[in-house]
Design brief:
The strands form 2 sheets. This protein has a 3-stranded antiparallel β-sheet. The protein has a two-stranded antiparallel ribbon with strand order 4-5. It is about 45% helix and about 15% strand. It is of the alpha+beta class. The protein contains 4 helices and 5 strands, in the order H-E-H-H-E-E-E-E-H. Helix 1 crosses helix 3. The structure holds iron/sulfur cluster. Iron/sulfur cluster binds next to helix 4.
C-alpha cells in the first residue's frame, strides 16, 4: 500500500467514525468541515467508503448529500464448520473448554485435514 493509500484509508476510518456518530446521517458539506479536509478529498474518501459498502449517500438539497452508515452483517458460510461430514464439535459442546487439550477438536482438525486432501 502506498502512503497516499494509507492516508486515504486512515482518513476513511476517521470519516466512518464520524458518520457512525450521526445515526440520522450527516450532510456531506458538514462532514468535510468536521474532518478538517476539503470537499474534493472528502468526495474521494466517501467514494472509497461507498465502494467498501460501508456508507450510502442520499441526495439532499442541490448538489449535497446526506451520508449514512450502512450496517452490514457478514454472512458466515456454514460449511466452514464442517470437516467432510463432521460438524465442528464446539458448536454443540457442553464440556468445560480447554482448547489445547481438547481431543474432540483435535479429531475434528484431523478430519478437516483429510477432507482437504480428498
Ligand atoms: S475446544 Fe473442545 S471443549 Fe472447547 S468448545 Fe470445542 S469441543 Fe468443546
Amino acid at each position: 500500500m502506498t502512503s497516499s493509500t494509507d492516508e486515504l484509508v486512515q482518513k476513511a476510518e476517521q470519516a466512518l467514525a464520524l458518520i457512525k456518530s450521526h445515526p440520522d446521517g450527516i450532510v456531506q458539506s458538514e462532514l468535510w468541515k468536521e474532518l478538517g479536509t476539503d470537499s474534493r478529498t472528502c468526495s474521494r474518501i466517501l467514494k472509497y467508503l461507498e465502494d467498501e459498502g460501508k456508507i450510502a449517500r442520499q441526495a439532499f438539497k442541490g448538489n449535497t448529500y446526506i451520508v449514512k452508515w450502512v450496517k452490514t452483517q457478514k454472512k458466515i458460510d456454514p460449511m466452514l464448520f464442517m470437516a467432510g461430514e463432521a460438524l465442528l464439535p464446539c458448536v454443540a459442546c457442553t464440556e468445560e473448554c480447554d482448547v489445547p487439550s481438547c481431543k474432540m477438536l483435535e479429531d475434528w482438525i484431523y478430519e478437516l485435514v483429510f477432507a482437504e486432501m480428498e
